Amino acid sequence: MKVVRILGIESSCDETAAxxxxxxxVVLSSVVASQMTTHGKYGGVxxxxxxxEHLRAIVPVVREALGLAGARLEDLAAIAVTTGPGLVGSxxxxxxxxKSLSFASGVxxxxxxxxxxxxxxxxxEARRAGTEVAFPALALVVSGGHTHLFEVREGFEYRLLGKxxxxxxxxxxxxxxxxxxxxxxxxxxxxFLAPYGDPNAVxxxxxxxxxxxxxxxxxxxxxxxxxxxxxRGMESEIAARRALRRGPSxxxxxxxxxxxxxxxxxxLASFQHAVIRELLTxxxxxxxxxxxxxxxxxxxxxxxxxxxxxxxxxxxxxxVFFPSPGFSTDNAAMIAAxxxxxxxxxxxxxLDIAADAGLTLA
Length: 362
What we know:
Blueprint: E1 5-10, E2 15-22, E3 26-34, H1 36-40, H2 47-69, E4 78-84, H3 88-105, E5 109-113, H4 114-128, E6 137-142, E7 147-153, E8 157-163, H5 169-179, H6 186-193, H7 219-230, H8 235-245, H9 253-258, H10 262-290, E9 294-298, H11 305-312, E10 320-321, H12 325-328, H13 333-344
Parallel strand pairs: 1-4, 4-5, 6-9, 9-10
Antiparallel strand pairs: 1-2, 2-3, 6-7, 7-8
Helix pairs in contact: 2-3, 4-13, 5-6, 5-7, 10-11
């Protein structure tokens, strides 16, 4: 078999990542430089700071990825880079460096949509495990910036079935966590604490959606949590957690648990249960309508243990594929993997391609 290697570069938000993937299924290296410490004190990603951190990290991260893979630029069939969607300043750092490498080496450039990368993270790991995902598949891409449903057809053609009309699911996790005084990112904290509460203690309802039945909306749920907090005078409890967050070292999961009363644990469990119910209900209904042969769940929220357990116990008539936690969050192996079908079709990008913060997949 001919050896084909692609270098992937990802810098769409707050992780600088590079990876080398061989023959669409062998990950020779995957390096990620996280900016969590930088943004954690602000409760969310600060775009200007993200761009600066990418500038510091991009060269050493790419060099490390090539070194771990034992690859030289001249060994590569292509250089793949995220061109959108994302923060435009962050995208420009990765794209500018990828263009420079392509120009200097003569290795062709391939533009990759970040959302498509998340879908390919599942395809990549399924292939590594000796399994092929059957098409058509329903892809639920759910993260801090995205909550989308796509029909994925043979040959990686996509049809958008539904999307969030306001907050993404991961964004709702982060905003609720910030409201309650927890650290950023809030999703992992809520996921850890939720099993200690009663998921049926607080009743959350979602507004009936007009128009597309596959669309999502999480802003109402976030507002419901705010009203619940305001009605109970939780200022001192929240202030104590904020003080803990500002301590000399990041709080451990056990420290967060000790700082969270039972009523708040019930709130978190009920909130997470409501988000998971909404995600799976709409995804399963869309999959049934399109006749899906598989369900793909990807993006940062795919790390959520409650979501994974609920999908596994749903008794669906088709397999459900999740990426491993390391490939759920932003990484460059998924960008390289998504580039292989484009390489086969000679879909190369010009060096004057522009970053597109609002790039759509379908």
